[in-house]
Design a protein that fits this description.
mainly beta
Length: about 80
């Protein structure tokens, strides 16, 4: 399954695009209210975030490819809800 390309505004501190602050899907902007988790792979950085709509998103930043959306969880179905949310 291919990741979905998105537009991300990120905080840049000690490194470029340190963590996402808000992102756009289609015409709508979502504010990141909370970073629930983050982890690294050899070439990407992942962020599990809760947005202002109350949903959970997993965003990925790749230095070469940019930002992408890897997962969305609305939290409306308990049997599919992500753990630790």
């Amino acid at each position: 399954m291919a990741a979905l390309a998105i537009t991300v505004e990120a905080y840049s501190g000690y490194r470029n695009d340190e963590h996402p602050r808000r992102f756009r899907l289609g015409r709508r902007w979502f504010e990141v209210h909370e970073i629930l988790d983050r982890w690294l792979s050899p070439e990407q950085r992942y962020f599990k975030v809760r947005a202002d709509d109350g949903c959970i998103y997993i965003l990925c930043h790749d230095e070469q490819q940019g930002w992408s959306l890897h997962l969305f969880d609305s939290g409306t179905r308990a049997e599919t809800r992500l753990s630790s949310t």
